Amino acid sequence: MTEQLFKALNKDGAAFHGGAGTWHLPSDGTPGEWMPPIEGKLIACQNGYHLCRAEDLLTWLGPAIFEAEYRGERLDAKDKVVVHEARLLRQLNWDDRAARLFACDCAERVLAVFEEQRPNDGRPRRAIETARRYADGKVTSKELRAAGDAAWAAADAVRAAAKAAVWDAAWDAAWTTAGDAAKAAGWDAE
What predicted TM-score, i.e. pTM, was given to this entire model? Predict the structure, then answer.
């Protein structure tokens, strides 16, 4: 089985992350036409059609996501694949609801970091639950905003506490280092 590749574009097939031109869209289960071959050496961000692997997709999300294929030479770059020829195979189910649910999934993956610092603060978890219900049309925009505001306030509190802890640790380290240096200088002078 070949590797699944993707292309993020505007819904009309126009470039979303830079570049120019409009891709031929798939229709009624038929892939889009092959894009005109690009001549010259493949160079990431300069020359070639840019596709992404599954692990790169988070970097390149856009309004529409398509499964794509290529033929010919391929250059694997850090967060993309560059090719001379490519086409779109099918559009994936990626709309506002899917994007919101994906964001909820991402937030849940790091929620434990917050809850470790503030185990009794359920605001972020409630915000994620509210966002999921909103995606399903079960919450109003006003309720969603309130949940988001609460989550941001909780995050700001953790950020402020972390900043204070870093500042205290840096000050203690600097004071200890200065004290050690002063003692050393005193011994040297003696």
Answer: 0.67
Q: Tell me the two tokens of residue 146.
A: 């309130």
Give the count of alpha carbons within 13 A of 72, CB side only.
Answer: 17
The domain ranges of the chain are 5-91, 96-176
Q: Could you tell me the sign of the dihedral formed by the alpha carbons of 119, 168, 150, 104, in that order?
A: negative
Residue 92 sits at φ, ψ, to 5 deg, of -85, 160
Mean pLDDT is lowest, of 62-71, 78-87, 96-105, 168-177, for 168-177
pLDDT in tens, 98-108: 988 888 888 88
Rounded Cα distance, 17 and 187, in Å: 62
